């Protein structure tokens, strides 16, 4: 650049000189309202902070590439998977869930794991967590659940009472709560944790055959977690530990990698599966539905500007591409609406024109106007379809095949009132007994006790006893250990449950 191009200018491009001194009547006098540069600087400064995300406010991002290593074209016609060795540019955002933008990276919390693939068929957003399940199975509960993870409306402090009250009244949360209370609730860094779609999606192949799928990102750095005590220590030493760790690793060219794997389930298998395969509080056991290799994700570039490329990044599970589609997972169905709506509130109706969110390939539609329309707004082309002036036409090859439904009755169903839907204990029990190591169990019990000790009177005994009943149903040893740590005589609880 030459010197002429480096002049200091206002936002409208007008060069100016006085950047640090306001115009005044004499060196000590009052300021003049005509000092427009001062007003422009302060007006912009007052508006620098856009609304933070309601959840997942604190996060870190990086660019990378996804490389196909195995052929899954018999399951999907998605173009990013159509050739071994094919590379697709992608962006990832890691995050905590419940804390504000200034909260600590090592809080006990699930971690968001959101990936945007920039494919030639549009952007595919795989928006998941570092856990394969979630706390609830119906999206109508989501706002209530999140309120319990935020701040008490009276004290403006985080409240163990609110959390355990809600969890004890919603035993479907047990599976995720057990994971959260283990050391997996405090990952060492974003590089040392897995990611999951959590939801069930569907894959569609060239014959328009549909199969159900779950996506898994397995870290090649190895799983590494903080203990509760070390996580608390790090919150005081470096609240931005995970952000700093990610930046340092990538800038030193220690590029983190994850293997993408899938589980698949046929529609016939789904009908006979002993749990609802679309229930977000349940997993598909790997012995029955083994992991299949797909490819490798490598992160190799930190964004040049955090606000532009991470804070303004917007991920939505509604953004799928040809060959990948939805499922009857009720939580997924709810997120299809709520995520884009949240982005429109936070970033504006044209949020997908922001460079980090913009599809790098062709975008043709008839959406016009709205705040911050910055792409020419369609110029003089028509804003309606069909029309006699352009050659934009729907491509029938992208038509999504119909989805078979199991009922034609619309109603408000209690998700916990019948059959396999109210089995909230088997899978958490399997996790506690069969997956956790002895040390995992010790740490998990300790974390549960520490957290439940924060439940306040006058509801303390009621909430604790209700939650202990759930722990006993998960595993008798777990229930006894938690009760002992809380100093509670459990004989009455066991008698009520019919356990001697």
Main sheet, how many strands, which sense, barrel?
A: 10 strands, antiparallel
Uncertain runs are none
CATH topology of the largest domain: Catalase HpII,  Chain A, domain 1
Topology, number of strands: 10
Note the beta-strand portion: 5-15%
Instruction: Characterize the overall form.
Output: globular
Number of domains: 3
The CATH superfamily of the largest domain is known as: Catalase core domain
- Tally of contiguous helical segments: 14
Distance between termini?
82 Å
Query: What structural category characterises the helix and strand content?
Result: alpha+beta
Helix share of residues?
A: 25-40%
Rounded radius of gyration (Å): 26 Å
What letter string, H or E per element, gives the SSE order? HEEEEHHHEEEHHEHEHEHHHHHH
CATH architecture of the largest domain: Beta Barrel
What value does the average pLDDT take?
93
CATH class of the largest domain: Mainly Beta
